[in-house]
Structure formats: structure tokens, C-alpha cells
Amino acid sequence: MSETKPILIFTHFWDAEYIISRQFCFAKQDSAVKMIYLNNPLNYTVNSIALTHPNLDSLPLIQEQFPSLKTLNFFCPTYEILKKYKEDKDWDYYTKKYKELLVARRDDIKDWVNSLEDNKAYILCCWENTSRGANCHRVILYNAISHSKTLKDKVICLYRDGGKV
Fold first, then answer.
1. Model confidence pLDDT, tens digit, residues 107-157
2. Could you report the per-residue pLDDT of 1-24, keeping only the tens digit for each?
3. How far, in Å, CA of 75 to CA of 19, rounded?
4. Angle in degrees, 0-180, between the axes of helices 106-115 and 91-104, rounded to the nearest 10
5. 114, 125, 134, 136: least buried by Cβ within 10 Å?
């Protein structure tokens, strides 16, 4: 990576495994496309933004490099919000409640963003492959950060739906 802001890559666990195996992905910064090299665990990290994560045996590269996969709880939906969505599929309600949660956790999110290192990619993972229209809180989170007046200038945000590249 050239001299740049921290890069947030929003994707699902298996896509994170895929881009780690390739050791790179692309990000758009302003009008330029930059290649992000993921060839050294010192220049990237993988974190869960889900209430649970898959058994790491199914993600051998993540398991090898990050055996204690850290969960960023301030980005996770609550169990209650997720349970209600699984029952009634009311995405508008889910979106409203998750945005309220992000507002309530604003200070933790700002603190985390302020702690990020330049020239480092932060891969934020949850479960959903959204390439075929599945709903996922990571879309809401990506939009919230990439459109935030205070956060959007501090990081580069890259959304990956998890479909085949």
C-alpha cells in the first residue's frame, strides 16, 4: 500500500479468506483505484462484526493469522434486533433499530476509528453474501461510515458483496 489512510474492507468471512489467499484487493480512493496488498498480517487485520463467527477450521488462513478472531462488539447488532428480523423479515425496522444502535455507540466507534493506523487494512466480517440481494447490517454500517461527516475523511471504505470477482 502506498501512503494512505486506514482502509476498512466490509465483507463476509469467506470472502476475507479469499482475498487473504490472493494477498490483495482493490480500493477506490478519490478518483484513483489502489491495489491493497495483504501479504503481511502486520498491514491488515481481520475482525468480526457479527454476534458469532464461523468455526475457524473452515477459514484456515484467518485461523492461522488471527487464531483469536476479535469481535468489534460496537458494530454488532443486538441479539434481539437480529432475532426479530429472522422472525418477521422487516428490514425497515431492522435498519432503523441498527442505526439507533450505531448512534448510541458513536463514541466507541469514533474511538476505534481514531485508533486506526495509516497504511493498514481492517477487514470487517460478518456472515452474509449480499451479491444476490440478501440484507446485511454491514451495508448499513458501510453507508453510515462512508457518509459520516466526521468519519468519511479519516478512512477509505471498501464494500465487497462477497460474490465471485
1. 999 999 999 999 899 999 999 989 889 999 999 999 999 999 888 889 989
2. 445 789 999 999 999 999 999 988
3. 22
4. 70
5. 114
HEC string of 104-144?
Answer: HCHHHHHHHHHHCCCCCEEEEEECCCCCCCCCCHHHHHHHH
Nearest to 113 by CA among 164, 74, 55, 161: 74
CB 6 within 8 A of CB 118: yes
In eight-state DSSP terms, residue 15 is H
pLDDT tens digit string along 82-101? 999 999 999 999 999 999 99
